[in-house]
Amino acid sequence: MEPTTDSNSFRRIGSTGPEPVTQAQARRFRQLAWPMLPLVVRTAQCLTRQADRAEDLAQETMIKAMRAIDTFQDGTDMKAWLLTILRRVHIDHLRSQRNRPAQVSLSRIELSDDSDDARGEFDEHWEHPEELMSRFQNEQVIEALHSLPDAIRWTLLLVDVEQLDVSSAAAVLEVPDGTIKSRAHRGRAMLRDRLYALACHRGWVAAPEKTS
Question: 87 is in which domain, residue-wise?
């Protein structure tokens, strides 16, 4: 799904729901939040890997944002505000799926703050990482990202993809700053391992020899 901010899409979102939004709400939403639609769609696509589910997730997020726009405080981070709404909508979607547990918590994984503990299994074998990374297509990186645990995936999406600072990411995920830092360290190591394993499978690099 291509992110779009056209007028028809805006009208569809504004007319959805039991009660129409006021003109003042619509103006404020269009000025402050509507330009952020591409980032909401992009993040939803990384979370779901399915265009129709990503579209539903993004649309519901923007609907909730429009109806709650009066609660947004001027001078604060609109990106973080929208991603907080997206996270909550995503959790609601997970809870509604039959094969998911009743309680979904993005804080269920506790990671050490010690960055020395966040080394990937294949880190010592990475040579010319920029050259190797250039061979991966976006879909392959998204696939590897999606294979990570929810808490790790959300952290990397916020910090590395959407470039939120640590404090803003912590506010979105409702965890301490230190948890974001440790998850980011561990998540990058996990992502490197998955991409290196894929590179080995593709024959781009030699698989490391197993030590007995």
Answer: 7-96
For residues 104 and 95, the answer to whether their CB atoms sit within 8 Å is yes
Query: Do 89 and 125 lie in a common domain?
Result: no
Tell me how far apart the alpha carbons of residues 105 and 121 are, in angstroms, rounded to a whole number. Answer: 27
Rounded CA separation 143/159 (Å):
18
Alpha-carbon distance of 141 to 130, in angstroms, equals 14
Q: Where are the alpha helices (DSSP H) in the chain?
A: 7-14, 23-32, 37-48, 51-67, 78-96, 129-133, 138-146, 150-156, 166-173, 177-202
Residues 90, 146, single domain; the answer is no
Task: Give me the number of domains the chain comprises.
Answer: 2
Tens-place pLDDT, residues 84-114 = 999 999 888 877 764 544 443 333 333 333 4
Q: Is the pTM of this model over 0.70?
A: no
Considering the domain architecture, whether residues 18 and 62 belong to the same structural domain is answered as yes
